[in-house]
Design goal:
The structure holds two protein chains of two kinds. Chain A is of the alpha/beta class. Chain A contains 13 helices and twelve strands. Chain A has a domain of 126 residues: Thiolase/Chalcone synthase (Peroxisomal Thiolase, Chain A, domain 1, 3-Layer(aba) Sandwich), CATH 3.40.47.10. In chain A, 33% of the residues lie in helices and 17% in strands. In chain A, the strands form two sheets. Chain A has a ten-stranded mixed beta sheet with strand order 3-2-4-7-1-8-12-11-9-10, sandwiched between helices. In chain A, helix 3 crosses helix 13. Chain A is globular. Chain B contains two helices and eight strands, in the order αββββββαββ. Chain B has one domain. In chain B, a hairpin with a 6-residue loop joins strand 1 and strand 2. Chain B is 13% helix and 30% strand. By secondary structure, chain B is α+β, with helices and mostly antiparallel strands. Classes of the chains: A alpha/beta, B alpha+beta. At the A-B interface, helix 4, helix 5 and strand 5 of A face helix 1, strand 4, strand 5 and strand 6 of B. Strand 5 of chain A pairs antiparallel with strand 4 of chain B.
Chain lengths: 395, 149
């Protein structure tokens, strides 16, 4: 049996900010679900199943809040699956929905989720809880500090500087000025990044994403549903995920299978994704990349490991404008994750922004003549990686 | 006007160590860092594992790690955490001699008033020595690293 062609039929994303005082978590999820249905011209009856994107719930202090949200996203009476791979949740959720349609089990699936990051002032302490209780948690390990470790390794390995990374933050905030949904935006300078306070050396505040709250949803469906509901769909031509060992210390030494500094799962996932999508030369065939760059170092590492350039070259090419809006590949026209990071739906927002580029719906962020766009998501201290290729035509 | 309902949650946990971590922690009390080894893959693990994650066979031996090792990754944590050491603190993943994986701990004895100078001493590739606390409680913080150079 030939697998089903999978299309993006509609989507929604809220504006993102630190606090969402005017809505509860479930109301945030609801406006996303309703917004995606409206965008696709669909009703809840047209949705066969839901994938709920939900990362750690300690940030908002309601455990397993998918239960609370189920009815609000029109899920009662339908199969609902919660997906949780940390920061990669949104990407994994898109892959799950894609798989459910591709396998012909369902005609249409809605991916929906919401995030509230700022209900607690103790976010880094919450993130410290994801570390092993016996060997690691007595140390100040968190996403920030482990990326400090990563950044030390990457800069030393390729002889790069903190200023090379600072330029990534500058471009991200500038691109985000065209994105009505972005959390942080505006003109900053390399000097501003360098002067921002040190969090975990060499990582500074402006190398780090904000804590964002908001919601998003995407509806994917079969070719028959695309003919019924979409005039210009984007097709999900490939989606792949690879995970790696929990142990950071295993990924740092010569015996490592996949290396921490390389974001080990990125290269094998990209290869699998490209093979399905018919991509052999990503820098030539892909016009837009919406990559999950919660930290500046994640930007060059992914471009390199996903085959857009050689290892150690991404920041040098950046100087020549390679990743600008009018460069060889437009990287993060949205401003990316450095400007907006609502953990549970960040990967989903990356996917929506990539699909919108293919569908010609990216408004002020639109890049011209986009045939293929790729989105990524990273979670669990570089342990989870997902990438998805959206095309204007089915692969 | 923004209205809130405030809540403070206190949860207490008592984590059972199990046999493997239990033996490791007992080793720390004795001033030794104990690793497990898999004869099939030839890999020696810190933190110790019950099963080799490469061969998927049971780790069938214990070995004592060397008292020196090499830094694989390092950072100076400047923004602090509730209930942990007061910042700034240096931490590193270190591959101890004779071991295939790296284990994390604090790096002590560094002047952290100048981050850049401290990071030069802490850079990946630099060698460190294990130092045990005088009073040990069977916890990972029973030891830390100091720079050799």
């Amino acid at each position: 049996m030939k697998p089903e062609t999978v299309a993006v039929l509609g989507s929604y994303q809220s504006n993102f900010k630190t606090h969402v005082d005017e809505k509860t978590y479930v109301e945030q999820a609801q406006i996303a679900a309703a917004g995606a249905l409206r965008d696709a011209g669909m009703t809840p009856e047209d949705i066969d199943a839901l994938v709920f994107a939900q990362a750690p719930t300690h940030f908002m202090g309601v455990a397993d809040a998918d239960r609370w949200a189920l009815d609000h996203v029109f899920g009662a009476g339908k199969p609902v699956f919660r997906i949780h791979t940390g920061g990669a949740t949104g990407g994994s959720a898109v892959q799950a929905a894609y798989s459910l349609v591709r396998s012909k089990l369902f005609r249409s699936v809605m991916v929906v989720g919401a995030e509230r990051m700022a209900e607690t002032p103790d976010a880094q302490e919450v993130l410290n809880l994801i570390f092993d209780a016996f060997y690691e948690r007595d140390m100040p390990l968190s996403t920030n500090t482990t990326v400090g470790l990563w950044t030390t390794c990457y800069l030393q390995r390729f002889g790069l500087t903190q200023e090379d990374l600072a330029r990534i933050a500058v471009r991200a905030r500038r691109n985000a000025m065209s994105n009505p949904h972005a959390h942080l935006k505006g003109e900053i300078t390399v000097a501003d990044v360098m002067a921002s306070k040190v969090i975990a050396y060499p990582l500074k505040l402006f190398d780090i994403c904000p804590r964002s709250s908001g919601s998003a949803a995407m509806i994917v469906g079969s070719m028959a549903m695309a003919k019924r509901f979409a005039t210009r769909p984007a097709f999900i031509n490939g989606s792949a995920s690879v995970t790696d060992t929990y142990w950071i210390g295993d990924r740092l030494t010569p015996s490592a299978k996949l290396r921490f500094v390389d974001l080990g799962p990125a290269a094998p996932a990209a290869r699998a994704c490209y093979a399905r999508a018919g991509i052999s030369d990503p820098a030539k065939q892909i016009q837009v990349a919406e990559i999950y760059d919660a930290y500046t170092v994640m930007y060059p590492v992914q471009l390199e490991q996903m085959g857009f350039c050689a290892e150690g070259e991404a920041l040098r090419l950046d100087k020549d404008g390679f990743w600008d809006m009018d460069g060889a590949v437009a990287v993060n026209p949205s401003g990316g994750t450095l400007c907006t990071n609502p953990i549970a739906v960040t990967g989903l927002v990356r996917a929506i922004d990539a699909a919108n580029q293919v569908m010609g719906k990216a408004a002020a962020m639109q890049v011209s003549r986009v045939r293929n766009a790729v989105s990524t998501a990273v979670g669990g201290i570089a342990q989870f990686f997902n990438c998805t290729v959206f095309g204007a035509e089915p692969a | 006007m923004s209205q809130t309902v405030d809540y403070e949650v206190t949860l207490r946990y008592s984590y059972a160590l199990g046999e493997v971590a239990g033996r490791f922690m007992q080793g720390l009390r004795e001033g030794r860092i104990l690793a497990t080894r898999c004869s099939k893959s030839g890999l020696t693990y810190l933190p110790p594992r019950a099963y080799c994650e490469r061969s998927f066979e049971r780790c069938d031996g214990w070995v004592e790690a060397g008292s020196e090792g090499v830094i694989e990754a390092s950072t100076i944590v400047v923004r602090g955490f509730e209930g942990k050491r007061k910042p700034p603190v240096a931490i590193a993943f270190v591959r101890l001699d004779g071991i295939d994986s790296a284990i994390a701990n604090y790096v002590d004895g560094l002047d952290l008033s100048d981050y850049e100078a401290a990071m030069k001493r802490l850079a990946p590739g630099k060698r460190v020595r294990v130092v045990f606390a005088a009073e040990r409680e069977g916890r990972i913080t029973d030891f830390s690293f100091v720079c050799l150079e």
